[in-house]
Amino acid sequence: MKRSTFLVILSFFLVIPLFGIKHTAQAAGSFTDVGASHRAMKEIYYLAKGGIAQGSSAGEFSPNKRVTRAEAATFIGRALQLNGTKRPTDFKDVGSGMVASGYIQSAVEKGILSGYSDKSFHPYQEVTRGEMAVMISKAFGYKYDNKLSVAAEALKSRGIAEGKADGSFGADEWIIRADFSVFLARAINPEFRVKENTVDFKDSRWINVDSLNIRTGPSDAYPKVGAAKQDEQVISAYKVGAWNYIKYGSLQGFVHSAYLRDTAEATNAGNVDPRIAKQVIVLDPGHGGGDSGAVGYGIKEKDVVLDTGLKVNNLFKQTPFQVKMTRSTDTFVTLSGRVSYAKSVSANTFISIHANASNGAGNGIETYFYNAAYQNPNTDDSKLLASKIQNRLLAALNLQNRGIKHGSFHVIRENTMPAVLTELGFIDNKGDNDKLRSDYWRNAAAKAIYLGTLDYYKAKGYEVDALYDVAK
Ligand SMILES: [Zn+2]
Predict the structure, then answer these.
(1) Arch. (CATH architecture) of 203-271
(2) What does the pLDDT read at residue 266?
């Protein structure tokens, strides 16, 4: 191969990933304070690979820092893929603006953590080894009889924790981030444990998709170690969130539970349609950067629709759907850039999210579709999607119904897949604005868009019933 040819090919491979970076979760880099000789290096980087352990913006992990209750909720929440969207909580000392608020609320709802009787959570209180043993026992379903000593034993018997040199567990000692990472990595993946054969493979499951990747951890970010084919059998040991730890021949690893069924015969009942995994949904929060969109009562459309879009994204990420965003930060993307992005990722469904304005004179929700088949040929499906999203938004937000309408907006006209543009409400109307500015109501709007999209797929004959729970 000529050197120039080699360089052309090399630059081809170097350039391609750049296009994806904007829409890819930040990759696990390396922490400046966790070097190759650190005793918890393997476990910390294992967790970092799946985004479970994260460092500061300066790239520090702070391995010797004591773990707070908020951090413990975040570590466990990420491991179990709980909903981490910042939101109001049951606790007076955990506001919706707190970074860990979503994980704290989710962990409490799942019974992994609990608050205090005075409705406080004490997010900055440090965690002891004993408390950590109880949290991990609850998160991974180990029997612990409500006793700290039994929880400690549950971890020791599985090779997740070791006792101290003096034979005690050190239950009252604070736990630091390095050690918490070690215990969590061992709980997730038996390969890190200090004992052999601690896992009981017992539940037969069958593959319900053409080919299912087996990975080293509970997330698509982990490398693939193999694959199992349609109708083959695997033996499951336990679940980590939506992922099963399974044995397949000589391989062990994680597979997404959406593609497993619990009968040898393919019945499809209760299983998610395997075609769903091939569906690409593009979410398009309008405006951004120097383009604020509509403004009213001190808030901007670009911020309302980005936050709502990120919340919708978070819901779809818990499903087999492939969800992508035209923007996930406060940046400006042109209308044609949004359309060409949707086409470039072969989107099957396009949902643009906006808020309205009309000098204070209008109020309510409306959803647009493009009703002229010579441009975007998907008139019927676009209309169906618009009506499903509109109905869910009305039920969730209880604002005026302005109906579904034909609209000649660039992003729904120039696209080549079913496409809608929804207006969540009027930002310059006091009543609508009260909801648009509220994290609670934006969560409600996000769930509505998610559920409306499921309703659309269901109407199109896809089996999606199992996915409605995600919005609970
Ligand atoms: Zn707009």
Answers:
(1) Roll (2.30)
(2) 67
